[in-house]
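Worked example 4.2. Below are the chains of a multi-component assembly; read each line carefully before continuing.
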Amino acid sequence: MKFSEKAHREYEGILSRYPSPETAVISVLELAQQEFGSVSEEVEGYLSELMGVPLSKIHAAATFYTLFNTKPVGKHHIQVCRNLSCSLLGAESLIEHLERALGISVGETTEDGMFTLSTVECLGSCGTAPMMQIDDDYYENLTPERVDEVIHNLKGGGTG
Amino acid sequence: MSELLLSRNFGVADSNKLETYIESGGYKPLEKALKEMTPDEVIEEVKASNLRGRGGAGFPAGLKWSFMPKESKAEKSLVVNADEGEPGTFKDRALLEKDPHMLIEGIAIACYALGVKKAYVYIRGEFVFPTKRFQDAVDEAYDKGFLGKGILGTDFALDVYVVKGAGAYICGEETALMESIEGKRGYPRLKPPFPTQVGVFGGPSVINNVETLCSVPHIIERGGAWYASLGAEKDGGTRFFAVSGHVVKPGLYELPTGTSLREIIYDHAGGIRDGRNLKAVIPGGSSAPVLRADEIDLPMDFDSVAKAGSMLGSGGVMVMDERTCMVKAAYIVSRFYAHESCGQCTPCREGTAWMHGIIGNILNGLGREGDIELLQEIAVNIMGRTICPLGDAAAMPVQGFLKKFRDEFESHIREKRCVLPSAGAGAGFAPCW
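Applying the procedure described above to all two chains together yields the following structure tokens:
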């Protein structure tokens, strides 16, 4: 396990912006997740050695923040908000609809490794509820039709 | 319609661009501050504006700035809280996306007033697009001499660093945010020392919310007294009310502080959907105790809402119609705090989980006589017994739901089910409750 050359340059860029390697841990974890897909124990061990930071400090940060996946996720990570504003406008039906459309339950990954479905707390998009985040993007004001369209497109069925 | 300050360019094409910002008078206030005012005069102007923190606590911004020591061995900094996470709140995201230069200008004026050369902007990790928009604006500002060395031909220098969060509500708490900037778990710190004594990387820090800082250029441009006159008595200016839930037009509404809650819901957000009646409203993000429909003739400023037994907080107005089950609403709110408790303090870690579990039992027909009293006892034992305000933020809404809608909890326990007429799951993502 090793950063690619490109990732290693980014890593050095991150370190140069922080006063010490310890303080750069969260940024480096983010880079590592992009590079390796998740922050496994193996990744933590690699970073500990690379950065000269105790494994306990790496592990403490990796397991505290919800954006770090300690287990691998599918190619597309669907995260549906289930907080109050979204629930008031049907987040529960939205989650059930997605479970049916993907054939998996919340917390699972499709067999082909394409989609992981998760529920999350407020994503700060309450005025456009119900909503979900897929990878880096927000999808707002959702309807069943819009959800079907988005999933279809991600499966390679079209653009948009 | 009152004048828009924060959102004046929201409808304009390329509102995120430097050019658009300058065309609307942007960066003139910074020039005025740097060339015509001393740092102390800037602080006095902000004090006179009655600007209060828009992140939720409502602390007077000018007063906070005046706590910053003039001299310090360790490097001073400004920390910008863009970890918008309070359920019901979605205003800082809009500012980052649609008018990032207003924030940069607010940061620059604040740093000049505080004698600070470094600003850290902590943006929640989920905000990938807003972060990109803001970083692009920062790069643009460096290119055109609004950041970096020798800003606007003066000897004022400032560096702005964007720091990404990684998914933890607790990092919106000021000291947890600082721990997170330092690469650690977001565990809130004991105070004192306060951030203006020991903030980020060991130096004194002032921490302000995005919307608070975006208000600053307007105060410098037109004066603190003018800004104060726009709003309520001890809570000046305009602010965002983020309206969500069962209204016809959910969204952001920039209005003078002190605008009545009724006006916000019925005149601006179009009233309740499908001709239904209002049942309940959370006036300031999910930590704020719920209000009943007969309590909305309420001026939305910090002091008035506090007097009514709730909290203006971050201005997140969550509206619930007559079909909404209050036990379920309380369940969802309590689940959030149980999920987000950092686990450092026992009353919060254990208490939030117990409150969530007990409300869940009541919701699912497993409630027992005495559960309401038990919930109240747990809430009382969390309040004021934790390092940071998350414990209070979790206890207050539970107390609010029990106080305002106790009969619904009682009937749930007695009947072992929800007694509200079910709307049924209609077409699409219609509300199923």
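Take a moment to check your reading of the output against the notes. The radius of gyration of chain B is 22 Å. Chain B has 17 helices and nine strands.
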